[in-house]
Amino acid sequence: xDSIHIPVMINEVVQYLVTEKGEKxxxxxxxxxxxxxxxxxxxxxxxxxxxxxxxxEILKLTEERLKRxxxxxxLVNDNFKNLPQILEEHHINEVAGxxxxxxxxxxxxxxxxxxxxxxxxxxxxxxxxxxVLTAKTLVNEYSESELFEIIRDYGEERWARGIAxxxxxxxxxxxxFQLVEAIRRGIPGKARYPKIHFATRTxxxxxxxxxxxxxxxxxxLRTVVSRLAQGGRIVVISFHSLEDRIVKWGFLQExxxxxxxxxxxxxxxxxxxxxxxxxxxxxxxxxxxxxIERN
Length: 295
What we know:
By secondary structure, this protein is α/β, with parallel strands linked by helices. It folds into 2 domains: 10-107 and 213-291, 3-Layer(aba) Sandwich (Rossmann fold); 113-211, Putative methyltransferase TM0872, insert domain (DNA polymerase, domain 1). It has 13 helices and 7 strands. The protein has helices spanning 10-17, 37-44, 56-66, 83-89, 106-109, 135-141, 144-155, 160-169, 176-185, 200-211, 213-224, 241-256, 272-277; strands at 27-30, 48-52, 73-76, 95-101, 228-238, 260-262, 285-291. It has a 7-stranded mixed beta sheet, sandwiched between helices. Helix 3 links the parallel strand 2 and strand 3 (73-76). Helix 11 (213-224) packs parallel to helix 12.
C-alpha cells in the first residue's frame, strides 16, 4: 500500500492543520483521502478522520490500510463537492480542520485509465468510474473550437490551436499513445518544451475537463469554511497554477469577509530533500488558513 502514493509535505500538513495535537475528540476531514497517507498521520496523533474519495478502487485499499484505527475513521465514496451533505448525513456540525490534496495518486497514474501519456491505455481519465464523460468521448466528439478552448484554458498550452486541429484530423483516437501522436503533430518540432513532455499540458487539460476539477474546487471552497470550528484550519495542496489561483483568491475573498485568517502569505513548497525522494512533489504548493469569527 505504501508504494501507491507518497503523501506530499506530510510534516507541513500536520504543522498547519493540527492546532492541538493528541486531542482524540478532534475531527478532521480529508476531502481527498486517496491512499490515506495524510489521514494516517492525523490518526496517529489521536485524531478522528472523515475521508472522502471518489475513486472506489483506491478507497477499498485505503480502508484496508486504516482499518486498525477502527471507528475513528469514516470513509465515504463521494466527491468533495458534496461535503456539506456528507457532514449532514453523519450528523456533524463542525470540524477541526479540512485538507485537500489535489494530486493524482500513483495508483491512478499507473492504472489502465489513461492518466499518463507514458502508458498505452484506453482514453478514460475519469476519477469516478460512474461518470459518463470520458477522455475518449471528449477528444472524438468535441468540436475543434471546444478542444482549443479546453487545451488553452485548462492546459495553458501556447500551441492549443494546432493541437486541437491535429486531434480532429487524426480522429478516431482510442488510446493514450494515439493521442500523444496527435499532439506531437500539432506542435512545431522546434517549439516542443525542453523541460516537460510536449503532451503534459494537453493531458492535464483533458483530465481537468473530464472531471470538472476546477469548477468543483471553486464551488467546494465556497461552502466548507462555514463548517470549520472557531480556530479550525483549512489546508490545500495544489499541483498547477490554475488550482493554486483558485485557492489563493478563494482564501483572499474569505479573509476580506473576515471569515478566514490566511496563515501562508506565500505558498509553502516541498523541501529539496523531499523532491529528491519524491519527484512528483516538485510542483506542489500548499496554502493554509484559519477560521475566525466575523467582527
